[in-house]
From TrEMBL:
Source species of the chain: Leptospira perdikensis
The PPM-type phosphatase domain, residue ranges: 413-620
Protein name, per record: Serine/threonine protein phosphatase
Xref: InterPro entries: 7TMR_DISM_rcpt_extracell_dom1 (IPR011623), 7TMR_DISM_rcpt_extracell_dom2 (IPR011622), Bact_Sigma-Reg (IPR052016), PPM-type-like_dom_sf (IPR036457), PPM-type_phosphatase-like_dom (IPR001932)
Gene3D superfamilies for the chain: 2.60.40.2380, PPM-type phosphatase domain
Keyword annotations: Hydrolase, Membrane, Transmembrane, Transmembrane helix
Pfam family membership, one: 7TMR-DISM_7TM
One GO MF term attached to the UniProt entry: phosphatase activity
Alphabetical list of PROSITE patterns matching this protein: PROKAR_LIPOPROTEIN
Top-rank taxon: Bacteria
Keyword presence, Hydrolase: yes
Transmembrane segments: 168-190, 197-218, 233-253, 265-285, 291-312, 319-337
Keyword Transmembrane helix: yes
């Protein structure tokens, strides 16, 4: 079903690309191969040949051609027109006409920087204003190494810019498909490490480069200020594309085992394409373009034959491979026939290569998807191993829960609610308390890191806390004792912690911190935070920690937490700025409702959890 949805999506995109495609007719041209200047053409009147209605291509061996055609304004008002030469790869163009006895000339040089063009467009275009019912004869001298053609269109200026917008959308969709498939299959490669995915991704990348060069987007978008001819780079990228698609085919079809002869034939073809890519800067352009006339049908037929043979031999995913080449072959045929003026121009003919390659890469992607099905047995084995790991993690979770207090304090002078949410099955947060007649001591800690290793170290933190029990009424001494123990017990890991001692006889709170976030005090509807700076535990054994004190009142609510409570919510803001607006609407709530609602409000803000979360709320009971 996923495969069918992908194909339906692309068909919808294709329909969208075809909508609104209303091209103006090409002008009827006359041409001559005489080598003259524009002044000579206007004065001496060369012998002009009338082109066939659909003939705008003059082959690969002519270096230049003069063409002329008329542009008319049939309206009662002056209108602006755009003359577009649909050949972004042309070497140079000289366009001229006579206006009031003055010869107007405009030039285009394909090797000059894109930014110097009069109108910033991927094709050579020229603006022309015509008075009411005026007709001008346009003369154009075109030079090109390679195929020589004159595919002009005459647009009303508004229609041209409307069509240009659609054209960029259509090409954006095409490049978007290529990029999406590239990223998708690259991610799959990272997961499965199949060599075929590497070659396929390289083929997609070079395919996008090919069309960006062929369509005139490369200079426009990437190097607008660089003087360069794109032709050598186009020839290199095309041959590199054929190299990678050959390597992909060798890997995907497994020909080395089922047909060594086809394997060797494709391999030597790949080597030949690689050599052609290297030599593309020195071989004349027309020779390279003529070679494509033979190499494209050759590689199509070779790879389609290999795909059919592989399918017959039982490689079922080769059926998609075969269909991919058939769709590309059809697209290239329509594109070639359109450019050769053997069939009328149409949307499919105009975008034949793009449509064909888009279908091809989608089908290649589906073929690779089928290939993944053969990895199911390995995945089942991996799933069994994962189940075993999960059982071990569940055991580790149960062990860690034994490290944490198994019940809440029973002191009648306070009530406490705790929420402990590790990022994974186990976590590095820890809390514990001492309870005695006239006082209450609470420690909260956060071991750096997550998962099993942090959870194991949190048990060490508990040992450090219990060993420091003699300092339970002096937070700074207790934190210092824990620090000395952890400096000798932890390796390359640190702990943020805080200890709070409530003296009920004096109604005072003493606290000391080692990098833990400030705690929050809520009294009579007012919210205030307090902190005590200190170095993380496990860094320096002789560090002396500070201790602070605040007075308490019955009815006070104290919130103590680790930094996972507010981290990744608003990275640029302080904890108070994040928490206070969420606490304020809840200050009148009973303790349990307050605690639950605060966590829910913060969870709604949090898109992804990235740390363990521990929240302790303590209410001082009113007598």
């Amino acid at each position: 079903m996923t495969q069918l949805r992908r194909i339906n999506l692309f068909l919808s995109i294709l329909i969208f690309m075809s909508c609104g495609t209303n091209f103006p007719e090409r002008p009827l041209i006359q041409y001559t191969f005489e080598t003259k200047t524009l002044e000579q053409i206007l004065s001496s009147g060369p012998v002009w040949s009338k082109a066939h209605e659909l003939k705008y291509n003059f082959g690969y061996w002519k270096p230049s051609v003069w063409v002329k055609f008329d542009v008319s304004n049939p309206y009662e008002e002056t209108n602006d027109y755009i003359l577009e030469l649909e050949a972004p790869w042309v070497d140079s163009v000289l366009l001229g006409w006579e206006s009031g006895g003055v010869i107007v000339q405009k030039q285009f040089d394909g090797s000059k920087p894109f930014a110097e063009r009069e109108i910033q467009h991927r094709n050579p275009i020229y603006k022309l204003s015509l008075k009411p019912y005026e007709t001008k004869t346009i003369y154009v001298f075109i030079q090109n190494s390679g195929i020589l053609s004159a595919p002009f269109r005459i647009w009303k200026i508004n229609s041209f810019f409307d069509r240009m917008e659609r054209d960029y959308i259509a090409n954006g969709v095409y490049f978007g498909i290529i990029l999406a498939l590239l990223l998708y299959n690259l991610l799959i490669y990272i997961s499965v490490r199949e060599k075929a995915y590497v070659y396929y991704c390289m083929y997609l990348a070079t395919l996008a480069i090919n069309y960006s060069l062929l369509g005139g987007f490369f200079k426009q978008l990437f190097f607008p200020n660089v003087a360069m001819s794109v032709k050598p780079y186009l020839y290199v990228s095309v041959n590199v594309s054929l190299t990678f698609v050959g390597l992909f085919s060798l890997t995907f079809l497994n020909l080395k085992k089922i047909n060594p002869f086809l394997h060797r034939l494709i391999f030597f073809s790949v080597v030949a394409f690689g050599m052609m890519a290297i030599c593309s800067f020195v071989i004349p352009s027309n020779w390279i373009e003529v070679s494509f006339i033979y190499t494209f049908p050759y590689i199509f037929l070779l790879l389609m034959s290999a795909g059919a043979y592989s399918y017959v031999k039982g490689v079922k995913s080769s059926l998609f491979f075969l269909f991919a080449w058939v769709t590309l072959f059809i697209g290239v045929i329509f594109d070639s026939l359109t450019k050769a003026s053997l069939i009328p121009s149409s949307t499919f003919g105009r975008y034949g290569v793009q449509i064909g390659t888009a279908f091809e890469v989608i089908l290649f992607s589906l073929a690779l998807g089928r290939r993944l099905r053969f990895l199911l047995e390995e995945n089942l084995i991996a799933q069994n191993q994962l189940t075993t790991i999960k059982k071990d993690l569940e055991t580790a979770r149960k062990i860690q829960m034994r490290i944490l207090p198994d019940k809440l304090p029973t002191n009648q002078k306070l009530s406490m609610v705790v929420s402990y949410h590790p990022l994974y099955d186990v976590g590095g947060d820890f809390y514990d308390y001492f309870e005695f007649s006239d006082g209450f001591g609470l420690v909260i800690a956060d071991v750096t890191g997550h998962g099993v290793s942090a959870a194991l170290d949190s048990s060490t933190v508990k040992i450090a806390f219990r060993n420091a029990k003699e300092f339970k009424e002096s937070p700074k001494e207790l934190i210092a004792a824990m620090n000395r123990f952890l400096c000798t017990s932890l390796s390359a890991r640190f702990v943020s912690a805080a200890y709070f001692y409530i003296d009920f006889s004096q109604m005072k709170l003493y606290f000391s911190s080692a990098g833990n976030p400030p705690f929050v005090l809520i009294r009579n509807g007012e919210i205030e935070s307090f902190e005590c700076p200190g170095l993380l535990l496990g860094v320096r054994s002789n560090f002396e920690y500070e201790q602070k004190m605040i007075g308490l009142e019955e009815g006070d609510r104290i919130l103590i937490f680790t930094d996972g409570l507010y981290e990744n919510l608003k990275p640029d803001e302080e904890p108070d700025a994040i928490l206070f607006p969420e606490i304020e609407p809840l200050v009148g709530f009973p303790q349990n409702a307050f605690h639950t609602n605060l966590l829910n409000r913060l969870s709604a803000m949090r898109q992804v959890s990235k740390d363990d979360i521990t929240l302790v709320s303590i209410d001082l009971t009113k007598v």
